[in-house]
Amino acid sequence: THTAAAFTTWDRSSPCFVLDNVLRVPCSFVTHLGDAIDDKTPLLRSNDAVNKEGLRLLKAINIATDAKCINSFLGWEQEFFVIKAEHYNARPDLVNTGRTLFGALPTRNQQGDLNYFAPVPGSVKELLFNIQTIMLKLGVPMAVLHNEVAPAQHEMSPIYCQATFSCDNNVIFMEVANAEAAKLGLAVLFHEKPFQGINGSGKHNNWSVGTDTGLNMFYPGKTDETRILYSTAIACLSFGLKQYNEMVRSSVAGAGNDFRLGAQEAPPAIISLYPGTGFEKHVDAIIAGGELNYKVEKSTANPGANAAMAAPCGVEDRNRTAPFPHCGNRFEFRAVGSSQNCMFPITVCNTIMAAGMSELSAKIEGGMSHRDAVAALYKDNRSVIFTGNGYSAEWPIEAKKRGLPNLNTTPLAVGQFATPKNKKLFAEMGIFSEQECEARQNVMFENYNTTVKTEAETLVQMIETGIIPACATDHKKFAENEKLKDYMGERAATYKGVKTETDKLKVMISKIPHGNLAKEADYFCNTVKPQMVVIRNLADKAEGLMEKGLYPYPTYEQMLYDHHS
Ligand code: ADP
Ligand code: MG
User: What is the pTM of this model?
Assistant: First the structure.
């Protein structure tokens, strides 16, 4: 760093605003040489790529040629947990790592699936309304606020807008949520998996691409032209998702998200496209020589009672087991983690979409008919379209047959980021130079390694200074009194196990390999993390054995419910 200069420069696509008497100016952040060292600059570049390739495509297919500009749009759904600040502060794992490293579930957790439908607890309602008020003053209408599946879990979402502005809004939302929670003696947890055994949190990125004239490429609309454009746009997206599958996967990779993806509460780590079963048939018809025009069928859901009106709906349900389902007028990238900045995943969505649009334009410019070019794209990338159950045990097997990668850990996903194929596309689309791409991969590895190392060290510290002394106190009572020996049960073995296994983890930490970030990540993933699980299981068992009052940290029951009264 003997020559390290960097510069902020105003992002003119996102409005500045005043918060707590401070003017905030959304910026791009680059090195002396103009290299991107932030998440904003690549996003802005990807908007330019979508704009360029989108206008080129519209010209090639002779639709909406009056458009002067193409934008990407985003509406994020932010999930999070709310707990008491005093509990947060009493758990070094939450303070240091954002998640609990051990803790047993209360007997009632989310088995009844009722939390989603229950009223928002009073203290949280006050918080959500306070956040909503401040966000509105900043020009961000938070239209959605409600409970989520797990106890103490909630969601807030804004009305969507242009992606760069929307990404900025999410960052400021997280800051405002933390600040407002502190004022009420609460804490907001944005980690993807703060509590084991109940649902984790995501940040679904509802994303679309459209013109300055109001045309949305992912909305079938009511005219032949818009429906043809719709079939065309989804062909481009299929190309992008199939050809750059690993790139999309690595855009949501991170230590926290590893607990979520593929865990039956979030999409699998396999990236596929769900355009709807009706549209899937339409794709096959196009491949077989059919027309592009696609008419969306509407239906009504009828409660069958005089007092309740029939609700208008699509003919088919939404598939919430897919990482990329269509939602009427947008695609919902469901794999994004709750703590992530939306900018990187949206950069990648824009990049692969631009790649698909470029591929299609090139075919048409080369003399192919519009229909045949779309059919060719669908034919080549048909395997990425999947409308079945993404949580089923058969899907990974089927996905493998289709040649779709299943990169189910961060080290595997990040390892596939800076490949020659990805570097080439990033360079062609003007998103990352080779060097920027490699730098980003290094940063992703480093983030992962630092995170898991901090977790392992925090675990050791908490076990040694909190759990083991509590185990010893509990053990002593039974060991020193002959009359109580019959009640010892599994205490001695369990407590001893906590100590022995923690000692093993300490040895592992002392042997972390250095010098190669990928090797280090692999060691954390496959050596350190499994040992942390062994210790956790023993610590949770110990929690269930020791006398009430000895456990040195707030319990899951306290954290999930104390603020609900
Ligand atoms: P869900 O039913 O998945 O919970 P929500 O209503 O919570 O959906 O969130 C949907 C999000 O998608 C909102 O932020 C909404 O404004 C946004 N959205 C709607 N239409 C579009 C669009 N065309 N492009 C991008 N985002 C959109
Ligand atoms: Mg929602």
Answer: 0.97
